[in-house]
Amino acid sequence: MIRPVVQEERTGCGIAAAAALAGVSYARAKAIAASLGISAHDPKLWSETASVRRLLTRFGLRAARARKPFRSWAGLPDCALLAIKWHLEHGRPFWHWVVFVRENHRSYVVDSSPTLKVSLRTDFGRMRPVWFLPVTMKR
Question: Taking the model in full, what pTM does it have?
Answer without folding.
Answer: 0.94
